[in-house]
Amino acid sequence: MFTLIYEFKLKPTSAQIAIFKEWLEQCRRVYNYALTERKDWVNSRKCPVNACSIKSEYIIPADKEAPKYNSQAVALTQAKKNIPELNQVHSQVLQQTLKRLQLAFEGMWKNGRGFPRYKKAGRMRSFVFPSMGVAPIQGKYVKLPKIGLVKFNQSRPIPDDAAIKQARVVRRASGWYVQLTWQWKVDVPQINSSGTSIGIDVGISHFAAVSNGRLFPNPKPFKQLESKLKSLQKKVANKRFGSNNRAKALLKVARLQERIANTRKNYHWELAHNLCDWADMIFAEQLNLKALARGFLAKHCLDAGWGQFLDILSQCCFKRGKYFQKVPASGTSQTCPKCLKETGKKKLRERVHKCQHCGYTANRDVAAAQVVEIRGRTAVGHTVGKLSEGKGSVLEDVKLCLPAKKESPAF
Question: pTM score, two decimals?
Answer without folding.
Answer: 0.86
